[in-house]
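Researcher: Here's my situation. A collaborator sent me these components and asked whether they could plausibly form a single complex. I don't have experimental data yet, so a predicted model of the whole assembly would be a useful starting point for our discussion.
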Amino acid sequence: MKTPKQKKYGLVVVLGLMIILTGWNAYSEKGGVAQTIKNAKSPFDNGSVASVPPAPVDTVLAQVRYQGGSFRVETRKDKMTRFQCSQCHNKQPVAVANAVETAHGDITLIHGDKDKELACFTCHAKDNRDVLVTEKGINVDMDHSYQLCGQCHFRQKKDWIGGAHGKRVSWWAGDRVVKNCASCHDPHAPRFEKRWPKTYSRPFTE
Amino acid sequence: MGFLKNKSCRQQITDEHRSCQDAGRRAFLKKAVKAAAIGSTAVVAGCQAPGLLGSKEEMALQFQEYFKAHYRLMTEKERDATIIRLERLAKLQKGVDVQISSKGALPGVLYGYGFNVTRCEGYMECVSACARENNLDRKSNTQYIRIFEMEPGQMAPNAGNGKFFNEVPVDGRFYMGAQCNHCDNAPCIKACPTKATYREPDGIVVVDYDWCIGCRYCMAACPYYGRRFNWNEPVVPANEITRKQHYLGNRQRRRGQMEKCTFCVQRTREGRLPACAEACPTGARIFGNLLDPNSEIRFVLENKKVFRWKEELGTDPKFWYFID
């Protein structure tokens, strides 16, 4: 038969154990990855990975910021074959030998709904062909076309800024460099084309 | 050692003895075994030109490889030694100069992967890039990644069609990839009887190929069909071998060894994206550091509708599917 004093000591020991166990439970990584992620609040120093080279030259600082600060996007102007557009699109009359090819006869516009299709001047500025223009009449540089696309595709733009849409270029560490909208999508026909897969899968079970 | 006529052989053995002087008993025994091995191969090959079993040097290297420790138990010096041996063996056997890295996990990094089910169009560029990057066997067409063509309403890849070969994307269907989920509580690690497979500090589940006995318990234990077995000696054309390799990653495997996706450890520890994420033409694959609140993968986890495959098993995968 236990005396009341022994009972009291027993109670204290049990309570102490419970407190210790609760504390241990809370601070151990018992919640798995989800808990580990929740506990990780300090940003990773992306410059600490020494093997990452500096950002490529054909990138430009984006006009928007993501959760980690500023980032870079791939340029577009240097990849367009006939930039600057004002070489032809100026006030002077031009005589072009092979006009059919140079006058954008190859472009088919598959963009927008069937009942409200887009036209050239929905995006291109009438008075200055080197730039794009928003619905509000603000000129947008070709390298920052995401500002234009984001007018309608605002959800994609939000995801693109955060990192859920589009993709980073080659490196997960270092300065954040992402693809521009037009790096992947043809702005005149933005939907990806149907094609054959690169390879085929083996049967699921071996 | 009267058989030894060649000067270089004798040199090798005296080197072994010299390095024994400052080593403990265990190390001494190891060295003794190695010396005996060199001696015995010298007996067989007589220090002569390559015979049926390859050159004398090749045999000696292979014999020394046979007695190395588990990668986790090796000292830096032992790791460097085995890498030198493996690089030399690759040169002797395949005629290619490979660089094998033993780079450890970056501090403050836990890798995570996001797969956008809405964006994947089934082009299979990732599968092809993965096979190329990781020197996968071309003979049996081994692939780490599988893409499934799914009907609306299906949620798990094993319900979909993994054998599709048609023009993609098909209207009304969506595509879902399956590969190693790099579980934090991985059943394959528990199943391995030799502890050849283990979790690295940055969360990657890797295999020490040379400690794998090929029992395939891990293959049976994995609920994600993430592991592959080398039924035959892997065949990779010499000009297609990826030279930049990692000990735990895409270095040459042998017949009878398990292998698996390593999040391209040879690339990711340098700061690069895995080959699949880099090859994806639609941006459906998001890769990054889970411990960095600013990373893309964290943005996905916090802002998108994410789910994990077979989460109820308690495997705690670091591979999330999400929809736009």
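Model: Some features of this prediction you could bring to your collaborator: The longest strand of chain B covers residues 111-116. Chain B touches chain A through 68 residues (CB under 8 Å).
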